[in-house]
């Protein structure tokens, strides 16, 4: 990648990016509330499940499709991937969180970058013609910035993992060293998730983590919640 593309990738992976991901735990809050995750080892196992069973076979497939479509200017293909990802995401909270953060990223990039494809995609999202999922917006953004497809997948995995680790530090007695140890241990899992998504079409998005979906539904009805999901 060029220096500009590398710097853009660093910016997109930074927790400083104002897209609201600090407000979501993607079900982790309910796992902690139910005492299903009580320590660093259990947390790492859960994050591995997320990466292998949800992020890899769903978000990364959509990201790759959006990235490829953005490189060739195919707006309809971007929207197809966007709608398909929404369709296979069962938990209502997850869909809402993904579209909220996606719209924030899209708005931010539209303010920073003058690009016709980005503007037309933003118009479709504003019209409600396509949801604007975060993974899809990230794929488009990465492609337009010259960030290579696989690196964009790893960026997505890294951002997801660091976001949940940040949530875990507010929910558990998890120190910074343990958080970094978990993140380091998940490196091979992120690579495998990226590999698994490489040859899938959008019709082959197959997220499967039933307990995550069940606890996400429980979280929607929880009386006390620190996180939006």
Automatic annotation (TrEMBL):
Parts of the chain that traverse the membrane: none
Keywords: Chaperone, Nickel insertion
InterPro entries cross-referenced by the UniProt entry: UreF (IPR002639), UreF_sf (IPR038277)
Keyword flag Chaperone: yes
Record-linked PANTHER family: UREASE ACCESSORY PROTEIN F
Matches recorded under HAMAP family: UreF
Protein name per Swiss-Prot or TrEMBL: Urease accessory protein UreF
Organism: Haloarcula saliterrae
């Amino acid at each position: 990648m060029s220096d500009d593309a590398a710097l853009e990738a660093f910016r997109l992976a930074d927790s400083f990016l104002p897209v609201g991901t600090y407000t979501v735990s993607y079900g982790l809050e309910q796992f902690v509330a139910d005492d299903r995750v009580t320590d660093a080892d259990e947390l790492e196992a859960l994050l591995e499940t997320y990466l292998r069973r949800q992020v890899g076979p769903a978000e990364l497939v959509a990201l790759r499709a959006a990235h490829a479509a953005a490189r060739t200017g195919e707006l309809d293909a971007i929207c197809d991937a966007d709608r398909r990802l929404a369709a296979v995401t069962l938990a209502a909270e997850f869909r809402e969180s993904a579209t909220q953060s996606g719209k924030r990223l899209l708005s931010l990039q539209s303010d920073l970058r003058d690009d016709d494809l980005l503007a037309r995609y933003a118009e479709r999202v504003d019209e409600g013609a396509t949801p604007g999922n975060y993974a899809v917006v990230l794929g488009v953004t990465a492609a337009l910035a010259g960030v290579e497809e696989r690196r964009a997948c790893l960026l997505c995995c890294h951002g997801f993992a660091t976001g949940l680790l940040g949530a875990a530090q507010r929910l558990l007695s998890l120190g910074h060293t343990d958080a970094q140890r978990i993140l380091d241990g998940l490196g091979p899992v992120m690579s495998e998730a990226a590999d698994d998504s490489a040859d899938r079409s959008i019709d082959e998005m197959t997220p499967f983590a039933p307990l995550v979906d069940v606890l996400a539904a429980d979280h929607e009805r929880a009386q006390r919640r620190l996180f939006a999901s």
